[in-house]
């Protein structure tokens, strides 16, 4: 079975990192415009909640901010829960790969670009799936 999801869009806010035990977690939202339909003035926008852990979380927090364009590949997870006696669900994308589309290094962090090895180096010609 295959659970792969790819989205290109803009971050809706600056990502922030949280610590859960020994792990680092970054939650953020990507806004992705749908193609315009004939006669529509503005396209509809879909919003995707994303989570990244550890190294991916560090890279996202260090390199991206509100409005930056990213392409992410991940797996879709549906979380089911109960609130006030009502069954509910939420959908999130667990980030597996990060592709940069015009991101920039934030000035307020001490990490340098050389601190991370590019795990995707040499894979530019590989198929996405």
Automatic annotation (TrEMBL):
UniProt biased composition (Basic and acidic residues): 83-108
Region spans: Disordered: 83-129
Any one Gene Ontology cellular component term annotated for this protein: nucleoid
Pfam families per the UniProt record, alphabetical: SSB
Alphabetical keyword list: DNA-binding
GO annotation terms (biological process): DNA replication
Stored InterPro entries: NA-bd_OB-fold, Primosome_PriB/ssb, ssDNA-bd
Gene Ontology terms, MF aspect: single-stranded DNA binding
Domain of life, per lineage: Bacteria
Subunit structure: Homotetramer.
NCBIfam families membership: ssb
The protein's name: Single-stranded DNA-binding protein
Native species: Ruminococcus albus
């Amino acid at each position: 079975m295959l659970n792969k999801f790819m989205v290109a869009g803009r971050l809706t806010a600056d990502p922030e990192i949280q610590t859960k035990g020994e792990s680092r977690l970054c939650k953020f939202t990507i806004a992705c415009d749908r193609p315009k339909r004939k006669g529509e003035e503005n396209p509809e926008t879909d919003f995707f909640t994303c989570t990244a852990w550890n190294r991916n979380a560090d890279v996202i927090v260090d390199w991206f901010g509100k409005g930056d364009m990213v392409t992410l590949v991940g797996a879709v997870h549906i979380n089911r829960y109960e609130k006030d006696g009502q069954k509910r669900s939420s959908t999130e994308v667990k980030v597996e790969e990060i592709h940069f589309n015009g991101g920039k290094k934030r000035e307020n962090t001490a990490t340098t670009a050389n601190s991370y090895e590019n795990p995707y180096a040499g894979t530019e010609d590989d198929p996405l799936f």
